[in-house]
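Lecture notes, structural biology module. Today: joint structure prediction for complexes of two components.
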Amino acid sequence: MGLEDRIIQIIIAGLTTGSIYAIVGLLVYVVYNVTTVFDLTLGQYVMLGAMTSAALFSRGVPLFGAIILAVVVVIFVSAVLWFIFMRRAMQKAPHLTQILLTVGIMIIITGATQLIFGIGVRMLPPFIKTEPVQITSYSFISPQALLVYATLLTATVGISLMYNYSMLGKALRAIRDYPLAARLNGIRPLNMMHLSYVIAAFTGAVTGVVMIPLTSVSFDVGYRIIVYGLVAGIVGGITRMRGPVVAGLSLGLLEQFAGGFISTDYMEAIALSVFLALLLIRPTGLLGAKEVRSEAKK
Amino acid sequence: MERRIQVLILVMLISFTIGSSILIGVGSPKAETKGATPLKIGYVLPITGAGAHMGIRGDRVTRIWVEEINKKGGLNGHPVIYTPADDEFDVTRGVMAFRKLETEGVHAVLGSYSVGICQAIQPIAANLGIPHFATSGAGLYDERPPQYKWGFRLNIASEGFGGQTLEIAKLKYNAKSIAHIYAGDAFGKRWIKIYRDGCKKYGIPLVAEESYDPLGSEFSAIIGKVRVKNPDFVEVSGSTVAGGLLIKQIREMGWKVPISIFVSLASPDILKATGDYYYKDPGVWQAASVPDIWRTCPKNMQERMEVEVIAEKYFKAYGEEISFMAALPLPSLKAIELAVKKAIETDPKFLDRDTKLIRSVIRSNVENMHPFWSVIGQFQISPDNHNGWTKGGLIAAQFQGGKLAAFPEYAYSK
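The predicted structure, tokenised, for the full assembly:
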């Protein structure tokens, strides 16, 4: 196994983990840009999608039926939580309360998932049952990893197209950039906030079901997922969509290169330290723009 | 109207949560007690968290053991009360769980499955004067038995598991070099030190040693790093699902090197994570123990006879075979049982005495106990050696033709 093989394998590994970080970073961006809240429940939607699909599959539901049902369940759960907790908080609660509320919801989802699905680790079989694709003599990529890349690509392109070319996307941007003007034009902020939650829940659930054949999932993985998502979102620059994507992928690559060439013991610490240093140099994030604080935004 | 619906949904959610809790039996299960003063045993173990797949199985076996003892009229007429405390596989929680058990007045504490938690509990157990029976791996008392005279470890010695792997590498594959990929936690770091010594003893160079994140899921960079050293045999150790994923990824990268999994049958979850490779790949071995594979062991084998009754009940109750990690509390429970019986024979009112005295006598009786067999081998505890395992209990195993097969010819004997 030569250096070239190792580097290619590290890139494959880095892009796989990085894609998951990037998608969750993207979800953080989607919700933050409408609500200005760092929503800590987003990792739970990824976990819930994965756990639900695996539980349904283990009870005899066909694979693709289980996937679709899992996505529907996650969207339903997110809607229920929105109407019970977040809707009112978004109207009246102080910013800190809103964030604390997401912490509470995160704990509720984790606890309820543990009660319903149990403590065991769950898995799904790969969606494409073929051998890993050989790239060089010693480097391979699993078809499931290709699906993870495809999910990131689809989410990025889909959200980007929606923001730039659809009326809904323009409404979301209007709420973000000019909330007062948007309200005067009949755009209801609460509806737009809820829409951002639906997009996040849907994308999170899909990510969960795509990643579970690679990683396996238990009820408590949501915490770890959201930490990396937040790092990708914040370090990438939360105000621009490409920020979390670039940061998430870079974080995955950096982690794997650190593990492959420096130390597997400290791979996460090295990657996160580099990101911390970047944040000191560029407090607005890698690709983030300076936030405009104008009266129009209030 | 909208407010009413919100309240209704909230009430439904709360009812559902409470109902589910009752249905799955959350809370401290306690054996029914009648008449005589009970013996109280506590167990710090991970019911939730990354080690839950071990803790929940150890908890099940302990319940079966308690039921069996109480069904037979208890220990010399005294019932046993069992109280588990969830450590969430976390050191801080583990210490809190231990202190909770202490305030509940337990006479002896088992646990945990984590080396880190056991190391944190040891000095507290010594200060409070509670006999503590570690059920973790990696030679906890190897280096400091005198300071922790209240601690015992009745588990297969770490060099035993290392030796089992090395027996397979040497005898089956005539390996000239070996690599070890271990979990980057307290267990793994302690374990790799022991493994280095084992490799020296067997004369097989350890050409690569790399740690992996026990909560991670992508290991190809680590695998590549090990592969460049071209070892003849790879040992993968650890107690989380990540170890299973690692094996799967080794094979998905087209690497056919023989692999041994350490304590593989500890958890069906770990095996599931290997995909089909554990069940179908003739190059994947395991350093197993008798409880993992007891049905294939000779009927007159001491460890088999010890595990048989509990294993049958376990299978009937939970629909799965007992495993090493599930059976792990049994030697400690047996030591406590023998110690308490001896104390009651000497003093029939022993369990009516002061809690501190009861704890102290249990400790002393365990420390001066005669050799005994229990499910994972023979144990001999003395004031100088609180690591009780002496021999037996280990076996080389592999899945062949859809069944787990034992290979006594590669079994480690100390």
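Point to remember: The CA atoms of residues 135 and 328 of chain B lie 6 Å apart.
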